[in-house]
Specification:
Number of strands: 6
Largest sheet: 2 strands, antiparallel
Bound molecules: arginine
Distance between the termini: 62 Å
CATH topology of the largest domain: Fumarase C, Chain A, domain 2
Strand content: under 5%
Order of helices and strands: HHHHHHHEEHEHEHHEHHEHHHHHH
Low-confidence stretches: none
Mean pLDDT: 97
Structural class: mainly alpha
Length: 460
């Protein structure tokens, strides 16, 4: 058999530099569990197909299980000469079982094997990430209750725009995370198709049962074209895109909270356990975790970029280039999972600085648009009302006061139709209460959304 299962045709031994250059076991060893899972299913199917006896299958099963244990207990030896995790495990099997071990790779290639392993791994990783995203959503939802009475400035262009409930902010992040979870679920469906039995690229002349391995591995279907599936890494690219979107969402949130925790904004106090200090400036409490969540987005985007370039222009079917997919997929997953897992306690433990927020809430004319809408509901055309409120804002700016500080005479000086009823919508609190539209920041709408989230996330 020799060390290399493909050695038969070769006259020359592999150059050491080639072994070092082509190996992937240094990173694909983390697929060991899925590789063994795939092999166990494959062996069982071979029995049904009459290509392996029940006794042989049992030996293979026992040996694969003990190999798994050795790997888990760090007692397994790796060598660059054996390229990848698939060859390592098979080599160990043959070493222990001889000819019985030599039968496992019947009607199988590493091409369908690696695709199977990676799909199983992506499936598990999606489930793990989905659970972490749910925990993060729950952290936002629990905040929404605790902060129910707080109004924050809503921003556009990072300029004060309109008043919004703090809960509306928290549920906004929940929505983004929910789309992320939806994308992962979609990706899971496309990843969850069995390539096993596609063999190298054309299938096999042996009487295998692909439905059986698919069933044993929990795949929802069997890939219909062996050429396609042995080259297909769409699911990996899609998974990493989904990871990028999560990173982008977390990055935007991190940016918000970095700004909000500055002396200048002073809206929140971040938990000190999730901040770090300066080696020279004694007073510093820096938001490094948030900065790194923002910063690590760059490498995840890089991972996606690498994958897209990797698969571009590859001829059918399998090409060794595809081995380069795994470091990027693993890196993107590890990075994003750690960001999501760190975000949850930060969200849960950050305190709103209510007094500081309230002290400046009437700055920036958050109620101007609501005042305009008040005039519209009294029959003033929108464009006219916009211009008139603009004039009133200018008047208030010149005097250094708020709209609510202006007198009825002031209002009537720009338009006779204005009366004291405008005071009902002025001030951030009244302005928030004036909202009515679906999905708006109106207290009623936000309460409805919050209740829906609690039901959905099964929070009592
Ligand atoms: N290690 C390879 C990968 O990750 C799988 C092996 C396929 N090798 C081959 N010569 N067909 O893609």
């Amino acid at each position: 058999w020799g060390l290399k299962p493909w050695g038969g045709v070769f006259h020359e031994a592999t150059d050491r530099r080639v072994e070092r250059f082509t190996e992937s076991v240094s990173f694909d060893r983390r697929l060991y569990k899925h590789d063994i899972e795939g092999s166990l299913a494959h062996a069982k199917m071979l029995v049904k197909a009459g290509l392996l006896s029940t006794a042989e299958c049992q030996q293979i099963e026992q040996t694969l299980n003990s190999i798994r244990q050795e790997i888990e207990q760090d007692q397994f030896e790796y060598s660059h000469a054996l390229e990848d995790i698939h060859m390592h495990i098979e080599h160990a099997l043959v070493e222990r079982l001889g000819d019985v071990g030599r039968k496992l790779h019947t009607a199988r290639s590493r091409n369908d094997q690696v695709s199977t392993d990676l799909r199983l791994w992506v499936r598990d990783s999606i489930d793990q990430l989905d659970a972490a995203l749910e925990i993060l959503q729950k952290a936002f939802v629990s905040r929404a209750e605790a902060d129910a009475d707080v109004i924050l400035p809503g921003y556009t262009h990072l300029r004060r725009a309109q008043p919004v409930l703090a809960a509306h902010y928290w549920l906004a992040y929940c929505e983004k995370l929910d789309r992320d979870r939806g994308r992962l679920a979609d990706c899971r469906r496309r990843a969850n198709v069995s390539p096993l039995g596609a063999a190298a690229c054309a299938g096999t002349s042996l009487p295998i049962d692909r439905d059986e391995t698919a069933r044993l591995l929990g795949f929802e279907g069997v890939a219909a074209n062996s050429l396609d599936v042995s080259s297909d890494r769409d699911f990996a690219v899609e998974f990493v895109f989904d990871l990028v979107m999560i990173a982008e969402h977390l990055s935007g949130w991190a940016e918000d909270w970095i700004i909000w925790s500055t002396v200048e904004f002073d809206f929140i106090k971040l938990p000190e356990a999730f901040c770090t200090g300066s080696s020279i400036m004694p007073q510093k409490i820096n938001p490094d975790v948030l900065e790194l969540i923002r910063g690590k987005t760059a490498r995840v985007v890089g991972d996606l970029q690498a994958l897209l370039v990797l698969v571009k222009g590859l001829p059918l079917a399998y090409n060794r280039d595809l081995q380069e997919d795994k470091p990027r997929v693993f890196d993107a997953f590890d990075t994003v999972l750690s960001c999501v897992e760190l975000a949850a306690p930060i969200v849960a433990d950050t305190k709103l600085k209510r007094e500081s927020i309230e002290a400046r809430l009437e700055q920036g004319f958050l109620d101007a648009t609501t005042m305009m809408e008040h005039m519209i509901s009294q029959g003033v055309p929108q464009r006219s009302a916009h211009g008139l409120v603009g004039q009133l804002v200018r008047l208030a700016l010149d005097r250094g006061v708020t709209l609510a500080d202006l007198s009825v005479e002031d209002f009537q000086s720009v338009d006779q139709r204005l009366d004291k009823s405008v005071y009902e919508v002025l001030g951030a609190k009244q302005a928030v209460s004036a909202f009515v539209s679906y999905g708006s920041t109106s207290p009623k709408q936000v309460a409805t959304q919050l209740a829906a989230w609690k039901t959905r996330l099964e929070i009592s």
